[in-house]
Design a protein that fits this description.
The chain has about 240 residues and is of the alpha/beta class. It has six helices and eight strands, in the order βββαβααβαββαβα. The protein has a single domain, classed as Alpha/Beta hydrolase fold, catalytic domain (Rossmann fold, 3-Layer(aba) Sandwich). It has an eight-stranded mixed sheet, sandwiched between helices.
């Protein structure tokens, strides 16, 4: 595990936490942060991806606002600060930074050239947008927010996308979920999974709404999806 410097397309550089697997070359997965920054939970998820044989990269997408943010969901003050960062965050610039990360690790000496993206909450939204706006080989979103307002971009999905939807998500109401499912279920590149009785962030380890059973099911589906579209595709 190490910190890696990535050049931004509009000047400057930003940092990314990177965990490498024992065996290389390997496919890469860009892990897209929640509104809490590249915190201990995101780093742990990178380490887990590396243990499964992937180069795991989590770029600091808040670097233009406050570099190095590391918050949790455990205090009201942290929630307030996280929402302030989210409200000030420029989604389009975030996508540019993710595309820069994608370009960097597609050509990395230890990479097979196959790169997927995977995100949670804000990161789930950005993972969906990377499926529509980038050449990522696959994308996975956990309880992405605001997707119902971005469905006009869905015809641009060119590679496989998997979405994990929390049915009792306090940030994505039932009407929005129905709209997402009705629109995206028509696309053969999209796989949708819905988790009854789960709230937003059901896969956030140690979080307020962590649901172990749902998280384990979703994570196994995620690894199967990554293996199919990154590892098996690279070997073909």
């Amino acid at each position: 595990m190490t910190m890696y410097t990535i050049p931004a397309t509009d000047g400057g550089t930003f940092q990314a936490y990177v965990a490498f697997p024992q065996q290389n070359p390997a496919p890469a997965v860009i892990l897209i942060q929640e509104i809490f920054g590249v915190n201990a939970e995101m780093r742990a998820k990178c380490d887990d991806l590396a243990a499964h044989g992937y180069i795991a990269v989590c770029p600091d997408l808040f670097w233009r606002l406050e570099p190095g943010i590391q918050l949790t969901d455990q205090t009201e003050a942290e929630w307030t600060r996280a929402f302030s960062l989210y409200q000030r965050f420029d989604v389009d610039l975030g996508i540019e930074d993710l595309r820069s990360t994608l370009h960097t690790f597609r050509g990395h000496a230890q990479s097979t050239g196959k790169v997927g993206v995977m995100g949670y909450c804000l990161g789930g939204k950005l993972a969906y947008l990377m499926a529509t706006r980038s050449t990522a080989d696959c994308a996975i979103g956990y309880y992405g927010v605001g997707l119902d307002e971005l469905l006009n971009e869905s015809p641009r999905i060119k590679n496989p996308l998997m979405l994990h939807i929390a049915e009792e998500d306090k940030f994505v109401n039932h009407e929005a979920q129905i709209k997402i499912k009705q629109t995206l279920s028509q696309n053969p590149l999209v796989t949708l999974y819905s988790y009854p009785g789960t709230d937003h962030a059901f896969a956030r380890g140690g979080g307020q709404h962590y649901n172990e059973a749902a998280a384990q099911t979703a994570n196994q589906r995620t690894y199967n999806f990554l293996d199919q579209h990154l590892r098996q595709a690279a070997a073909a």
